[in-house]
Specification:
73% of the residues lie in helices and 4% in strands. It contains 8 helices and 2 strands, in the order H-E-E-H-H-H-H-H-H-H. The N and C termini lie far apart (59 Å).
Length: 245
């Protein structure tokens, strides 16, 4: 495709060992192959094992989707169980639940970005171990810096919101100290959750490739649900340490 584009050709000859023309492939052939690959990856992005056929039966569609859905159900159950383990901190500062979706959403977005970069890297057949390690460490640094910046912004927004609304956090009395503590929980959670999300987003596709599973399968629901588990653990652990511990 690169040579076809570079030289502006509509077709490219295929030669044998004796430099004899044995065939040719055209620009349309390449585009058709790319479209087929994109359809397959899009199906995997949704957690399917392969591209869905419009003519297949309901039972066949269920059979394809249920394995990944079962895995996601287990991971989602772990998220619920983790939250239930922090009932003490939730009952002490109910406001902490308000910002849970913010932490989970940003962590999931960050992990998905690292996942996309890593999958694109692994699609290159000439890639070596040094390049893979370089990409992992780069994504960790990117996640840390993004988490630091958004953590500071998150702290500022949360503190400003609580200060303006004067919402009491505990004991039914508003306190700037409590507002700073809640804002700190959100800020540090964004920093750590986004950093670890980049680690997961980079390592999961590499591990999948090592065990002979298409890295594209790691996309979508699986990676975001796994990151939810990590983000919830970080968020409520920090809340326990800073507010109760």
């Amino acid at each position: 495709l690169i040579k076809l584009t570079e030289y502006g050709q509509d077709s490219y000859p295929v030669l044998n060992e004796n430099d004899e023309v044995i065939g040719a492939f055209t620009y349309e052939d390449v585009i058709e192959e790319l479209e087929e690959e994109m359809k397959e990856d899009y199906a995997k992005l949704a957690g399917l094992t392969e591209e869905e056929d419009l003519d297949e039966s309901v039972f066949q569609s269920v059979k394809k989707r249920i394995p990944w859905l079962a895995v996601l159900l287990f991971l989602s159950f772990m998220v619920s169980m983790l939250i239930s383990r922090f009932e003490g901190v939730v009952s002490t500062i109910p406001m902490i639940v308000f910002f849970q979706s913010l932490i989970l959403g940003m962590a999931g977005n960050t992990g998905t970005q690292s996942l996309a970069v890593t999958i694109r890297l692994l699609s290159d057949e000439e890639i070596n171990g040094k390049d893979v390690l370089k990409t992992i460490f780069k994504e960790i640094r990117v996640g840390f810096l993004n988490g630091l910046i958004l953590g500071i912004l998150g702290f500022t927004f949360v503190f400003g919101f609580i200060s303006i609304t004067k919402q009491p956090i505990r004991n039914d009395v508003f306190s700037y100290v409590d507002a700073i503590e809640v804002a700190s929980i959100v800020g540090f959670s964004l920093l750590f959750a986004m950093t670890f999300s980049c680690v997961v987003g980079s390592l999961i596709p590499i591990i999948f490739k090592k065990i002979k599973i298409d890295p594209a399968v790691a996309s979508g629901p699986f990676i975001t649900t796994l990151i939810d588990v990590i983000a919830v653990l970080i968020y409520y652990s920090l809340a326990t340490i800073l507010f109760i511990g």
